[in-house]
Amino acid sequence: MIVNLNEAELGKEYRITNVDTEGDEEMESFLFSLGCYSGEMITVVDKKRNLVVSIKDARYNIDPELASAIHV
Q1: I need a surface site. Which of 12, 15, 22, 64 has the fewest CB within 10 A?
Q2: Three-class SS of residue 69?
Q3: What pLDDT is recorded for position 6?
Q4: What stretches of 1-72 show up as alpha helix (H) in DSSP?
């Protein structure tokens, strides 16, 4: 089942299946620079107003809009 990152469970590792930025090249480039692209593993570490995610041994704070573009 494919869900966006906002719906992901805390602490569970997921494989990114798609990054759908709806043609927003700047957002796509930013996510790619974080290592966020199809096939990469991602874990939601914390959820409050924003999400804290772990990608490739680094942690990032992303807002719900960015998280909705990342499908796992």
Answers
A1: 22
A2: helix
A3: 94
A4: 25-33, 64-69
